[in-house]
Amino acid sequence: MEQYYKELLRFLGRKLGDAQDAADIAQEAYVRVLDRNGDCAITQPRAFLFRAALNLCIDLHRSRRGAQVAPIDAEAEGVACAAPLQDERLYRRQQLARLERALQELPSACRQAFLLRQVEGMSYDEIASRLGISADMVGKHLARALRHCRTRMRAWESEGGCPPGGAGGRR
């Protein structure tokens, strides 16, 4: 399915009008297709991949449209409750520790590509130049990192505990 990547990226670029969004959607489409739990083979992989990408475009559009709608009672929603905020902070710290642990499990180049993209906001070409690899390899590293992190986060979440080594601790 990797042979469709550039074509998918061009298609999404035209559809979305934004190269960054197109790259993000393409990457997520690949991850979703690769992560699927299907027992039957995909007979038309290109069509399947493009449909997944289109569905993600629709989700992106809906989320952006929904984010612009103001709540009916904005004042009531602005009132904070201390206990849920503390629970939310604890949960976010646990998730961050889990993510850090999952990233440490990745090969160095894969982890660097992920961090340059997600933290630094660099483009595929910028990452490729920085790491001395092709933009296609950057895409492969990013898909691998996302797939790995998603798998590990789900596993740890279902176990209900922190990753081995404690909250973010290294083995």
UniProtKB/TrEMBL annotation:
Alphabetized InterPro entries for the sequence? RNA_pol_sigma-70-like, RNA_pol_sigma-70_dom, RNA_pol_sigma70_r2, RNA_pol_sigma70_r4_t2, RNA_pol_sigma_r2, RNA_pol_sigma_r3/r4-like, WH-like_DNA-bd_sf
Q: Where is the RNA polymerase sigma-70 region domain?
A: 2-65
Q: Start and end of every RNA polymerase sigma factor 70 region 4 type domain?
A: 97-149
Which UniProt keywords are present, listed alphabetically?
Sigma factor, Transcription, Transcription regulation
Name the source's superkingdom. Bacteria
Q: Which SUPFAM superfamilies match?
A: Sigma2 domain of RNA polymerase sigma factors, Sigma3 and sigma4 domains of RNA polymerase sigma factors
One matching Pfam family is: Sigma70_r4_2
Output the PANTHER family linked to this UniProt entry: RNA POLYMERASE ECF-TYPE SIGMA FACTO, RNA POLYMERASE SIGMA FACTOR FECI-RELATED
Which family does the record assign? Belongs to the sigma-70 factor family. ECF subfamily.
Which protein is depicted?
Sigma-70 family RNA polymerase sigma factor
| Upper lineage | Bacteria, Pseudomonadati, Pseudomonadota, Betaproteobacteria, Burkholderiales
